[in-house]
Amino acid sequence: MGRERLTLGLLLRLGILLTTVYVCVHVYLDTSWRRAPAPLAFEHPIQSRQNLGQQSRTKRVSAETEEQDRSIKRRISYVRTLKKDGPAKKRDENREAPSSPLHPHRKTPRWHIDLEPWASESHSLEEEAKRFLSYITTPQVSCSPLAGEEAAQEGSKGTTGAWVVCLDPKYSLAHRIQSKHCRIYSFGLGVDDRSLERFLARSGCEVHCFDPSLKQPHLQQAEMWLHRLSVDWRDPSPAIVAQRQYANTKKLATILNDFGHRQVDVLKADMESAEWKILENLLLEGVLDSVGQLLLELHLHWAGFEVAGDDPSVVRYWFSLLKELERNNFRLFHVQNDPAKPHLFLHKNVLNASSAYTLSWVNTQWKP
User: Fold this and answer.
1) What's residue 190's pLDDT?
2) pTM beyond 0.70
3) Which of 263, 333, 327, 323 is nearest to 295 (CA)?
4) What three-state secondary structure class fits 80?
5) Which domain of life is it from (predicted)?
6) Which candidate, 282, 285, 272, 268, places its Cα nearest to that of 359?
């Protein structure tokens, strides 16, 4: 009887102990499963618990990365807001990618000019010359008043006033002169007649005359700045020593950067047959976006420096450059030919054309 009671008591205690162990194990496993993510259908539960620590570390790294990304996005948004709200927003939207720090609105440089179709299937010089001469002698916009003719006549009797600027209120130059914020660039080789430059300087414009024949690097004279410098279609190579002591030529984009100028109201150039390659460079690099009016003397007695090809191809190239100028919003408003010049067109007498024409264009979309 005593043994039976002892056995019953041991069994009862053993049952209570097993029940307690079972409950503890159940509670522990239930708590662990709730903290851990549910395993995939193909994943073993033990493997899930082993990956738990690695997943926790990954979550902390992801959280830190997201916080850094949000911080960077806030900074980028701030910079974009400054650009978007800046005064040059509209001008920048109308242009392509930037090309230099001082000229953020310039177009991306190109490598070549797209040639226009031939004037006729015969590819003859006669047809090409007829199209070209008709184009350069037909003004595309009217402009009144013109400034420069009276100044030239006052400076030298009998002068016809080939170099003129447009002071029509529709365009920006007249307003820039009134506000005394106009800037003039004049390029030439040994130029004697600077009547237009003096007129604009007296009107309150900042006038820079560039002539590589000067003996001094910079000189202020008659309300104008004179610089021993000229424009070219390429920058000089530092490996090549200049042949002449005072020779110094640079691309217009380089000159603008060197002088810290963002725009030029009037660009006047008489480059003695280098104008075609210089004009090509200005078009390819998008520098003309910074120019309000372009005054250019064209020399037609030969192809020009580094312009190759037979005669019809040369004239087609000339015409293509001027059409590119038109696509860049420049419109011809004044034409002048010098009757004292010989009537030579590529060393020939073609359509009785003069060997030199002075043309004036206005950038109809230019808003400095």
Assistant:
1) 67
2) no
3) 333
4) helix
5) Eukaryota
6) 268
